[in-house]
Amino acid sequence: MLPAARLQAAIELLDEIVAAAREGGAAADTLIQRYFKIRRYAGSKDRRAVRDLVYRAIRRHGEAPASGRAAMIGLAAEDPELLPLFDGSAHGPAPTGEEEEGAPATVLPAWLKARFASAVDDTDIASLSGRAPLDIRVNLSRTTREDVLAAIPEAEAGTLCASSVRLPEGSRIEDHALWRDGLVDIQDEGSQLLIDAADPQAGSTIVDLCAGAGGKTLALWDRTGGKARIIACDTDRSRLSRLRPRAERSGFTDIETCLLNPRKEREALGDLEGAADLVFVDAPCTGTGTWRRNPEARWRLSEKRIASFVATQQHILAFAAPLVAPGGVLVYAVCTLLAAEGEDQIADFLKTRSDFRKVEGRNIGSVASGQGYVLTPARHGTDGFFFARLERSC
Questions:
Q1: Which string of DSSP letters, residue by residue, matches 149-165?
Q2: Which residues contact 143 (CB under 8 A, 6 or more apart)?
Q3: Among 156, 186, 216, which residue terminates a domain?
Q4: Is 42 a member of any domain?
Q5: What is the band of 363 on the pLDDT scale with cuts at 50, 70, 90?
Q6: Are 165 and 200 found together in one domain?
Q7: 164 pairs with which residues across the strands?
Q8: Catalytic, out of 210, 233, 285, 335
Q9: pTM across the whole model
């Protein structure tokens, strides 16, 4: 493909991605894969170049542009090498008109800015549109970070968490013996930090209430050296089924699983009421803290979508709280920086549950936000998170 044809392909893909965001369709990565599946003439360099153009445009536009062409003209205004490619060639985009304007650069939809937590500033918000690094979690019960760094000399030790290692851009850890032998797992340092804040203890009963595929479940097991009872719960059978092979690769055993029936969770968890020393709630959320990984998600957000997640989080907290034993801890975490899902959610919870109070976690350098804390890419180099550590009175 000639450079002009690559640009036109990016424009066509952006049109599809914008439409999908408005209509609740497939994610950008899925659309890109589909696009090239039926265009086998495009080589690996072509696919990489087109993908790079697409994501440069997506990251530049926090609000969905009117069209893929408007997005690329806007990008071309900042990149002199792109404008000549609007040349009207056979497979390239038509020349730009004298009065044709590109979409302006924006960080996020204007209506959304006021929704962020009080501790989050403009620099924090801007950092959400950057590129995310690739972090791995060292299974400290099986090896040391020093040994992992010796095996990957180009990697760097994480700055916030003793189990974290940051890999160079473009690394494929899945091809490394460390991965095949289950000595490391992929996990953002912020997620690892949440496990440190939870401070899981050997000999305790731990419920991971929204376990998904089990990334944090495995971290909880590793932190306790497998010497705790850990129950991983989720309402999604497919996601929960991925935990077992991940645990087997890591050499982690005796993790219990519990498939929950939506809206009937308390029935399945009845035996655990008042018995858990730690209940970890990594609740479903809008994911604003992961925009570096899913930048077009900014285009999908709406007041209705936020309200739906807030209601789900309230429901989960309502059946999570009774599981906590007297003197036990409830950790609530979301990968979002919106106040409604973080500080406001916990403030409302504490109004209805006077038997819980905020307790300080381990000193991990997070920023106070209401009765909890936030992590941001700008300040911590992690995904964006809100978390709170709440203790139930004896």
A1: HHHSTT-EE-SS-TTEE
A2: 183
A3: 186
A4: yes
A5: low
A6: no
A7: 137
A8: 335
A9: 0.93
